[in-house]
Amino acid sequence: MDNSNRTVIVTGFEPFGEHTVNASWVAVQELKKLGLGSNVDLHVYEVPVEYQKVQSLVPSLWKQYHPRLVVHVGVSGMATTVTLEKCGRNHGYKCLDNSSFCPDSQCCIVGGPDCINSVIDMESVCKRVTASGLRVAVSVSKDAGRYLCDFTYYTSLYLSQGRSAFIHVPPLGKPYSGEGLGRALQAIIQEMLELLEQAEEKIHCQQHIH
């Protein structure tokens, strides 16, 4: 594996609205303490809840690190489980961000596809993590909510041909602690990397057959 392939970037969001402490960033900082194993270079970033800042930050992370995988983590006041998002959507961004801005086009990438799926099979990740006896409930969703979470996810999926993931976490204490969420992120992202590796080996084998 070359060095760039060992890099994983995980982001959380800054506080917004009623989330004066953002559980996603707390969880990501806990994950940073735990790490993803000695063969993974983990970098974490706190993402501003602002459309224009996301539009410059996300491409710069892909350009700077050429990561194997980027995982964005966000909080959802409605979530009661740790939720794996299958896809990002391009249209419908009407809610104002922390700087009271929303894109005129109400979309992420003008002319981009309506929806982009992650290359990672979130159902498999969910099953495997659940079977591992993690004491945190995990579920899968097809709607990341048309706010900064969805916007960030779509932007990353677009730039990486789907080599991104998004995880929604519930607010702290509803019911999980920051530490519990950090452990859940660790287990989930390790499964994602495992699946990514298997998928690549399969592609590699197929290339040799033809």
Automatic annotation (TrEMBL):
Its Enzyme Commission number? 3.4.19.3
Major place of residence: cytoplasm
Q: Is Cytoplasm a UniProt keyword of this protein?
A: yes
Q: Which domain of life is it from?
A: Eukaryota
Record keywords: Coiled coil, Cytoplasm, Hydrolase, Protease, Thiol protease
* Gene Ontology annotations for the cellular component aspect, listed alphabetically: cytosol
The protein's matches in Pfam families, at most eight in alphabetical order, are given as: Peptidase_C15 (PF01470)
Subunit and interaction comment: Monomer.
- Could you tell me what this protein is called? Pyroglutamyl-peptidase I
Specify the species: Austrofundulus limnaeus
The taxonomic lineage of its organism, from the top, reads: Eukaryota, Metazoa, Chordata, Craniata, Vertebrata
Gene designation: pgpep1
